[in-house]
Design goal:
Number of strands of chain B: 12
Family (chain A): Belongs to the iron-sulfur cluster assembly SufBD family.
Helix content of chain A: 10-25%
Shape of chain B: globular
CATH topology of the domain at 8-96 and 173-258 in chain B: Rossmann fold
Protein name (chain A): Iron-regulated ABC transporter membrane component SufB
GO biological process, one term (chain A): iron-sulfur cluster assembly
Keywords (chain B): ATP-binding, Cell membrane, Membrane, Nucleotide-binding
Structural class of chain A: alpha/beta
Number of domains of chain A: 1
Strand order of the largest sheet of chain B: 6-9-10-3-11-12
Helix content of chain B: 25-40%
Number of helices of chain B: 9
InterPro entries (chain A): Fe-S_cluster_assembly_SufBD, SUF_FeS_clus_asmbl_SufB, SUF_FeS_clus_asmbl_SufBD_core, SUF_FeS_clus_asmbl_SufBD_sf, SufBD_N
Oligomer: heterodimer
Structural class of chain B: alpha/beta
Largest sheet of chain B: 6 strands, mixed
CATH class of the domain at 8-96 and 173-258 in chain B: Alpha Beta
Chain lengths: ~475, ~260
């Protein structure tokens, strides 16, 4: 291992600071009273409380899954605070009224909101420890009938829509962490694109976990009606703490006939230090339902952070001719672990799916791709193409691929390709001999490796992702 | 071309180097002035490729003794990329493949890095494209190579040409050609040698590392050195290479008179 490379990877986490804002924190522990507290704090209708309690009761009877290829000590669910909201001084009408301390946090994160939002034409719905603080561009979007707000606000203002769609793609009893989320989710985003509307800008949410030992359980729901289309961006960071924090979100996407939803994530939660102390457990359920004919759901994710990333953004291709896509880059370094991939469930005829997964492991980390392609009996002429590439940096990391393919219709065409490569000392020496230092070399190799995925990201995000990756892997080669 | 008054580019004295604890170079001495072409010959395992890699600063090799001066500057203090920027170029014996990185991107980054170091103008992708295509003509390379990944799927000969293309772009002051002739058919050898000759001038120097005389038919060396067991054991003119070709390397030990008598 060359020393120069070591230094590169071992740069400290840039977003590791705590904002001193008085938080309104629920006592630790989970029981029906806590759930009632959350529900009443949020002034929710009775049916939502029932939804939560039923989910909780199911959760009590479920067992934590153990099949994943990641290891962590047992989580004490009674040692988590399930509600933490920054105490607002008063109702906020505009960005100017947002707590300056909070705004400074965003500055440190490198997202000066108004400018960034205005310049980039991105509407940012800011989630700060589960409560949406401000939503920009809302009015502009409202002109074309788009609803983009926090899910709490949506529960108050559009209860019928929420009731109609919430839990229809990821039912409360879907899995252990989805059940937990359904019981205790505190906020998240809601996005509704009405019939025939193409969303004129990329919608973006910036998630951030601030309180130590608070779990973050957001819930995101995006509905695109007939012929609608939207591109949604999600970015995540968290300050550094020595303890692990659980992040168990649920994201549901619904695309009706001819609708198109593109969901992009750049995830940079705190990954723990170089010895594997601290970091986020990112256990998330993301699923899209391509319900209508010719609908399309596309997931793009760049996962660089978290101590553990464990998620499978999936597509249920129910509509005829519907399309599902999954483009992923997962980077692990030091002691990070990732078990991620997708599920493509083909139900409708002529459904097509594409999976491109790029795993990069450095340090002592472990990265797994796990994916399911299921062609059900009704899915005539379904097609899938999967490509899973792994890259190893150094000799102490691991990469694994677990493809599951289930075909129940013999007109299906399913392709799977996989490769493993390694950045070696000889490649770096070759670059060096042409005057290019290790940092630039790694960045160039990695960007080449991830090109097909980065091409899927909106331009702004692609630039950010490229930088993030180089930063993340600095010094890891040798 | 030998000119006793030209500047000393490389001065190596009593160079010892090890790889994984095994000593490969055991006291190499060589002086190279600008304008000169040197050939280092020797059997496999004699240390000639190691010598080239040590000059370029390969991290697997450790210099344990001796001095290594390039243009009066102590090389051992410089990282490989700094040596490259200072003007040392190694054409690799086995150029590595770099999947996913387009050749033109790689070439441009290398070119601009070295240009930047020299305080000269960097080229944008369009300007560079014109520039590199000109250089490719010199080596009769198909422009398709620009869009392919660096060395990926290149034949042995294509890889070697790509090395010399890089030499043409970076215009090094000292170029080390490590077995550039191996794996080349006679036509490719002629093209590559012709390219190298056109790049050679009074301000730069070349060190050719080779087994065979064959390359030296096309690129005429001023000096031929024979390396054995990590040291240069004989230095002479071009005729030494011919003698080795005729008699084999053992001949050096059996009859030292012959070189004097050959034309």
């Amino acid at each position: 291992m060359s020393a120069a490379l070591q230094n590169l990877v071992n740069q400290p986490y840039k977003h590791g600071f705590v904002t001193n804002i008085e938080s309104d924190i629920a006592p630790k522990g989970l029981n029906e009273d806590i759930i009632r507290l959350i529900s009443s704090k949020k002034n929710e209708p009775e049916w939502l409380l029932t939804f939560r309690l039923e989910a909780y009761r199911r959760w009590l009877n479920m067992v934590e899954p153990v099949w994943q290829n990641v290891k962590y000590p047992k989580i004490d669910f009674q040692n988590i605070s399930y509600y933490s909201a920054p105490k607002p001084k008063k109702k906020l009408a505009s960005m100017d009224e947002v707590d300056p301390e909070l705004l400074r946090t965003f500055e440190k994160l490198g997202i000066p909101m108004h400018e960034r939002a205005a310049l980039a034409g991105v509407a940012v719905d800011v989630i700060f420890d589960s409560v949406s603080v401000a939503t920009t561009y809302k009015e502009k979007l409202a002109e074309v009938g788009i609803i983009f707000c926090s899910i709490s606000e949506a529960v108050q203002r559009y209860p019928e829509l929420i009731r109609q769609y919430l839990g229809t793609v990821v039912p409360p009893g879907d899995n252990y962490y989805a059940a937990l989320n359904s019981a205790v989710f505190t906020d998240g985003s809601f996005c509704f694109i009405p019939k025939g509307v193409k969303c004129p800008m990329d919608l973006s949410t910036y998630f951030r976990i601030n309180t130590e030992e608070s779990g973050q359980f957001e819930r995101t729901l995006i509905v695109a009606e007939e012929g609608a289309s939207v591109s949604y961006l999600e970015g995540c960071t968290a300050p550094r703490f020595d303890t692990n924090q659980l992040h168990a979100a649920v994201v549901e996407l619904i695309a009706l006939d001819d609708a198109d939803i593109k969901y992009s994530t750049v995830q940079n939660w705190y990954a723990g230090d170089e010895n594997g102390i601290g970091g986020i457990y990112n256990f998330v359920t993301k699923r899209g339902l391509a319900k209508g004919r010719n609908s399309r759901i596309s997931w793009t994710q760049v996962e660089t952070g978290s101590a553990i990333t464990w998620k499978y953004p999936s597509c249920i291709l129910r509509g005829e001719n519907s399309v599902g896509e999954f483009y992923s880059v997962a980077v692990t370094n030091h002691h990070q672990q990732a078990d991620t991939g997708t599920k493509m469930i083909h139900i409708g005829p002529n459904t097509r799916s594409t999976i491109v997964s790029k795993g990069i492991s450095a340090g002592q980390s472990n990265s797994s791709y796990r994916g399911l392609v299921r062609i059900t009996p009704t899915a005539r002429n379904a097609r899938n193409y999967s490509q899973c590439d792994s890259m190893l940096i150094g000799s102490q990391c691991g990469a694994h691929t677990f493809p599951y393919i289930q075909v129940q219709n013999n007109s299906a065409q399913v392709e799977h390709e996989a490769s493993t490569s390694k950045i070696g000392e000889d490649q770096l020496f070759y670059f060096a001999q042409r005057g290019i230092d290790a940092e630039e070399a790694v960045s160039m190799i990695i960007n080449g490796f991830c090109k097909e995925v980065f091409q899927q990201l909106p331009l702004e995000f692609a630039v950010e992702a490229t930088k993030l990756l180089s930063f993340k892997l600095e010094g890891s080669v040798g | 071309m030998i000119n006793a008054n030209s500047k000393i580019l490389l001065e190596v004295h009593d160079l010892h180097a090890t790889v994984s604890g095994t000593e490969i170079l055991k006291g190499v001495d060589i002086t190279v002035r600008s304008g000169e072409i040197h050939a280092i010959m020797g059997l496999n395992g004699s240390g000639k490729s190691t010598f080239a890699k040590v000059l370029a600063g390969h991290p697997s090799y450790e210099v344990t003794r001796g001095t290594l001066l390039f243009d009066g500057q102590d090389l051992s203090a410089l990282a490989p990329e700094e040596r490259a920027r200072a003007g040392i170029f190694l054409a690799f014996q086995y150029p590595v493949e770099i999947p996913g990185v387009a050749n033109n991107q790689f070439l441009r980054l290398a070119y601009n890095t070295v240009q930047g170091q020299r305080g000269e103008e960097e080229l944008d992708p369009l300007e560079f494209d014109d520039f590199v295509r000109e250089k490719m003509k010199l080596l009769k390379m198909n422009p398709d190579f620009l869009d392919r990944s660096v060395n990926e799927g290149f034949s042995g000969g294509e890889k070697k040409r790509n090395e010399i293309l890089q030499m043409a772009l970076l215009e090094p002051r000292l170029a080390l050609l490590d077995e550039t002739d191996s794996g080349l058919d006679i036509d490719a050898l002629r093209i590559v040698a012709n390219g190298v000759n056109q790049l050679s001038n009074k301000d730069n120097a070349l060190i050719l590392v080779t087994h065979y005389q064959r390359l030296l038919d096309y690129i005429a060396p001023d000096y031929v050195h024979v390396m054995e067991a990590g040291r240069i054991i004989r230095t002479s003119g071009k005729e030494l290479a011919l003698a080795l070709e005729t008699h084999g390397y053992d001949w050096i030990h059996t009859d030292e008179q012959v070189t004097e008598t050959r034309p």
